[in-house]
Amino acid sequence: MNAQFSASSLRIALLSYRGNPYSGGQGVYIRNLSRELVALGHRVEVFAGQPYPILDPGVAFTPLPSLDLYRQPDPFRTPRPREYRDLIDVLEVLIMWTAGFPEPATFALRAARHLATRRADFDVVHDNQCLGRGLLKLPKLGLPTLATIHHPVQVDRALELAAATGLRHITLRRWYGFIRMQERVAHRIPEIITVSSSSADQIAHYFGVAPERITAIPIGTDVERFSPSPAVPKVPGRIVTTASADTPLKGLAVLVEALAKVRAEHDHAELVVIGKTKPDGPVARTIDRFGLAPYIDFRSGLSEDELVGLLRSAEIACVPSLYEGFSLPAIEAMAVGLPLVSTTGGAIPEVAGADGETTLAVPPGEAPALAAALIRLLGDPALRERLGAAGRERAVRRFTWRAAAAATADRYRARIAACDNAGPDRAASQPAEGIVPC
User: Fold this and answer.
1) How far apart are CA 205 and CA 210, in angstroms?
2) Is-contact 406 40, C-beta < 8 A?
3) pLDDT grade for 23, boundaries at 50, 70 and 90
4) pLDDT > 90? residue 279
5) Which residues in 213-339 belong to E strands, given as ranges?
6) Same domain, 102 and 204
7) Which SS3 state, helix, strand or coil, does residue 148 take?
8) Same domain assignment for residues 152 and 268
9) Torsion of CA 73, 79, 83, 85, to 10 degrees
10) pTM (whole model) above 0.70
11) Are residues 419 and 361 in the same domain?
């Protein structure tokens, strides 16, 4: 452990239906928040399904395994009869067979069942973006409960549906069916944590959650590890971006189109994508249309050290997303001292800062504007140096995981106090609007 436990330390159950950092921001959140909470003197136990999280020393872990229906190389598999353990497993397969996404619902049921046997072990339960119905059982156990929503998944759904045609449009609607459950659960959880003011506004809008029940706590990065290094040579013309999912939300197809324009003026320009793409997806089709395959390199499964090294080797970082609830890639690039080109989608301006001061900002979805900003930055070493230094200063000053953990622990204490003040009958006396008392 990094800190001595004391009477003021909290016993925290941290839930995440998917925990691996390579699955996106949820895994990054779980790893860094749990580490910093332990460093502050709290006891943290993470509960997660596959793919399992990568956690630091001092953080306890209890797996709550699913049937892992989406694992590679056989996603959407049908389990063998001997794999079924209980009715939750049956429910998981039935939802998948009907084109739905079962993991949030079934993970929450497994978590509630497990925590019912360990009520005395925890002071508070913190859910990370699962929002399954099972969470509503926890107040009946006397467990103060809150949840993090990184951004409303309704935004992802709208963008994917807009790009879909034919049968894909129908199956996407079914796949996102879990959102209705999440809306009902979010409406009843007494407190929601999110990562930006922009996300807080969107959560209030899409989930119907009263703004006073939402707390925005910015997250951050390890500014000691993600730091500049003059010892790493820059690769001329290298632009780096992160695409944790091959979806329209990430704007990668727009960036590929912009790269075609950039290479007309800077023929040494290349794009390195931290992530992977679908062989028959819109990004792959855009790459083929412009003949850019030799100039785009996809890299996935990078260790943190490999990620830092790659960022240090680039001349520019780009965040082309149409919407972000926060944008960890922006903070990581800024912390490394990379000059940034970003869109104004969602919370990105809140994170990346003002246009011309810490980033060159363009409207989301506009390839010509994105290309113009990249061309300008590639041709101006002094501007790259100025934006990189300003971005590094902003990341160090405003976005650290230690500050995020301290603010989150304050919300835990407030939630525990609210439950204690409600008295011993709090679980039986739900407010008229249906919000669970804890």
Assistant:
1) 9
2) yes
3) low
4) no
5) 214-216, 238-243, 270-275, 296-299, 316-319
6) yes
7) strand
8) no
9) 120
10) yes
11) no
